[in-house]
Amino acid sequence: MDEPAFASATELARRIKNREVGCVELLRYFLDRVDRFNPDLNAIIVDIRDEALERAKAADAALAAGEDWGPLHGVPMTFKESYNIAGTPTTWGTPELKDSIAEDDALAVTRLKGAGAVVFGKTNVPLMLADFQSYNEVYGTTNNPWDLERAPGGSSGGSAASLAAGMTGLEMGSDIGGSIRNPAHFCGVFGHKPTWMLLPPRGHATRGVLSPSDISVIGPLARSATDLELAVDICSGPDEIASRGLKLALPQFAKSPGELKVAVWRDDPMARVDDSVAQRVDAVAEALEHAGAQVDYAARPVDAEHAHTVYQCLLQATMSARLAPERFAAVERRVEAMDPDDTSPRARIQRSQTARFREWIANNEQRTHIRWQWHDFFDRFDVLLSPIMSTSAFPHDQRPFSDRTLTVNGVEEPYFDQVFWAGLASGAYLPATVLPTGPDPQGLPIGVQLIGPEYGDLVTIGIAKFLEEQGFAFQPPPAYC
User: Fold this and answer.
1) Alpha-carbon distance 26 to 35, whole Å?
2) How confident is the model at residue 1 (pLDDT cuts 50, 70, 90)?
């Protein structure tokens, strides 16, 4: 695309280095789009343009002096609100943290700035990053650029909406239950959930927290698969402690499409998928098959119900550990009131919110068995293709979670059932890349995820790059062209 608003970050960097556009000029171009479109979208909620303009001026001066800051020299970008950027609030959408100002940059911010990026803002999230929508009492509601009456996804909803509307060049989000992949799907952009801990998350946390969170990862969203690869390359690798003895060597995507062995998991009773979504999964599978890949619709790496229950137990334990003391006390009271004779999977999942360490260890042991099952599966297959959500973007729904449902093929389904599709990769620490595949009958974008083996990040991104060349590419929302 010729218009800078919808170009990839890689292309923007090329134009800067070829002197086709200046760094200040490009930043002002994006800021103008923010001023025009963000009031209706409410996607970028922290503005640090003055600091960014000074950095852009320095980037222009450096280029004039023959200095190259790196592969993102002068490219404007934003970060999810949950990252620390020195001098800005990091609230995670929580009113109690609205005055929590970061003192230092997160490690990913440091690495991307070190590669030349110009950071000019932060993007909206749901309360404690725990929803398929992005709204909170601190910053309000973010809208989907394809339809302002619909959610952009969550928790990286502001990230995906900003990219889709052409208001930023690159974004960094995070994912524990689809929080990169779900917004990428809802807004029609690319997103990558990395292998757990491949990208050190230090600084993606509330104040004072240094320990990495179980399951949760940080990762990029972009308008091209090439940008995902670049961002992973920049942000991955051991932190200062681990780098004393560890060095990263990710396997490259080295096969031709005709050599690929692809498994397809297009629907499941655990989380029914709307026909409009399943048909886009089929379209991607057919494109790979047409390229010569072997495609298997029956292969399954794990037992769906068991893997999902283990994931949910570990997820609920992790999410409840983030709660403020008074909120956790309320969870404890609710769990204590449960029928002690109820041993159903649902009861087990609810009890995991207050699990003892012994119980967490038992769930982690089950996860480790599941990880080995996936490992064996990827000895036979290169990638698993699946939905990431049950439907396309749905209308805003800010009722209590217990009152929410989704309409799937005309049937009302529980709101959180669809986390099953995110949990396939998240629960086993696997990488997963979401790529846009085209619209549903309502004209809303549909994304599909490619799940690979642990540390197979460049493989899933590489397959996404091939599919992007086949036409499964970003298309801008009409109202923002």
Assistant:
1) 14
2) very low
CB distance 446 to 455 below 8 Å: no
Helices (H), 107-257: 107-114, 157-164, 181-187, 225-235
For 451, the enclosing helix (H) or strand (E) is strand 445-451
> Residue 312 in contact with residue 353, Cβ under 8 Å?
no
| Catalytic one of 8, 156, 159, 179 | 179
In terms of phi and psi (left: phi > 0; alpha: psi -120 to 50; beta: otherwise), the region of 346 is alpha
8 is catalytic: no
Torsion angle in degrees (nearest 10) through CA of 75, 80, 86, 89: 140
The pTM score is: 0.97
* Cα–Cα dist 450/273, whole Å: 16
Burial call 213-233: b when 16+ CB within 10 Å, e when fewer: bbbbbbbbbbbbbbbbbbbbb
- Burial group, residue 340, by CB count within 10 angstroms (0-12, 13-18, 19+): exposed
Reply yes or no on whether 402 is catalytic. Answer: no
Per the annotation, the verdict on 155 as an active-site residue is yes
Side chain identity at residue 190, one-letter code = F
**Residues constituting the chain:** 481
Question: Residue 372 is encoded by which pair of tokens?
Answer: 């080995």
Average pLDDT over residues 335-355: 89
Of 8, 82, 134, 155, which residue is the catalytic one? Answer: 155
CA angle, 410 then 414 then 416, to 5°: 125
